[in-house]
Amino acid sequence: NQVCGTSFCEEGGNVRLAQAPAAGRLVITEIMANPDGADSGKEFVEIYNNGSEAFDLNGLTLINRRDSATDDYSLRADGTPSACIPVPGNSYVLIATSANSSENGGLPSISALFSGSLSNSHSDSGNTEPLFVALYLGDTLLDEAPYAKPADGKAFQLGVGVLDAQGNDVL
Questions:
Q1: HEC assignment per residue over the chain
Q2: pLDDT for 29-74, tens place per residue?
Q3: Beta carbons within 10 angstroms of residue 5's beta carbon
């Protein structure tokens, strides 16, 4: 739920203001855009909260860019769409297309869901520019990560020790 650009969520039967990530605190650390076999339900993005304070994913939008096309996916909780989606401090969480482990390739706990598909390639086969995944809060870019055309079953992963929002800006 949003009122005037502010996100609210439900926690323990109460409605509260969703806590937005502070600048530089959300880091995209892994992108699985082309799982082995059929992609449906198996794609995911891993993020890291590199700060000590928790934040919520409510109100965030996952953007996937290729060529001049952009796909926007709102993040939502599994089960209760208005439930708070907290990310504890100094923690990793997964955003995926399915929370069902028999559909998503056996992923561990999923924090948030998005409906759609991540790009495996550009529409122009000669385009060698990277593909991009980004997370936005309204018009504010929180983090963006490029990834190359993925091979089947291979994820793009940020190197350990580079857990900041600028460290994932290059391939």
A1: CEECCEEEEEECCEEEECCCCCCCCEEEEEEECCCCCCCCCCCEEEEEECCCCCEECCCEEEEEEECCEEEEEECECCCCCCECCEECCCEEEEEECCCCCCCCCCCCCCCEECCCCCCCCCCCCCCCCCEEEEEEECCEEEEEEEECCCCCCCCEECCCCCCCCCCCCCC
A2: 999 998 887 777 889 999 999 999 999 999 999 999 887 788 999 9
A3: 9
Instruction: Please give the Cα distance from 164 to 29 (Å, whole number).
Output: 9
pTM of the entire predicted model:
0.88
Phi, psi of 10 (to 5 degrees): -105, 135
